Amino acid sequence: MQKYSSSSALGHWLALLLIAILFALGLLSHGYSPETKNPDILQSHIFLGIFFLVVSVARLWFRFSTKKPNELDTVNKSHKILKNSVQWLLYLFSILVPLAGLNIILSSDVDLEIIENHPELLFSQATQLAREYHEIFAFAFLFLIAFHLAGVVLHIVRTKTNILKRMWPDA
Ligand code: HEM
User: What sign has the CA pseudo-torsion 64, 70, 74, 78?
Assistant: First the structure.
């Protein structure tokens, strides 16, 4: 079975880890109010979100600059179209969600240096629309990830081929 390169595989699992942490921090900071004394949650969400954007751009660059393993022979034509569409949408949303997050900062009229120390101001000053876009994109992204995961699990169960090995870095 042909495999993805170790760097592609590491990028893939790092992205999953970051997404899990970002969702948890995002949901925790949701109830954040200016009265809350600890701005660390939102600050960490912003910092990790920027890191995730860098990782996502690097993954996309890798996708175009390295050779992909051959398509699985257990995948038929229509299945291949669906699988590839979901994968490209995952790349797209990996960029779109953090960009929509940055747009929240840009849409607020508070200076960047002030936001760094008082991220809670984003809740009162940023436009509601920018926050809603970020949230809608994030949940659409979550849906795509669930769809992708279901596809992987179904494929393993139906064809009894462990395709996870293709996405595992070499030791
Ligand atoms: C538990 C969660 C996940 C599992 C088990 C999983 C598993 C896999 C596997 C096995 C492949 C290789 C498919 C093949 O052999 O062709 C793959 C590809 C891919 N996965 Fe995931 N994945 C998960 C989460 C994610 C997440 C969160 C993202 C989004 C950032 C993602 C994005 C992708 C993309 C874009 C590809 C295609 C790589 C390419 O061909 O360019 N996956 N995944």
Answer: positive
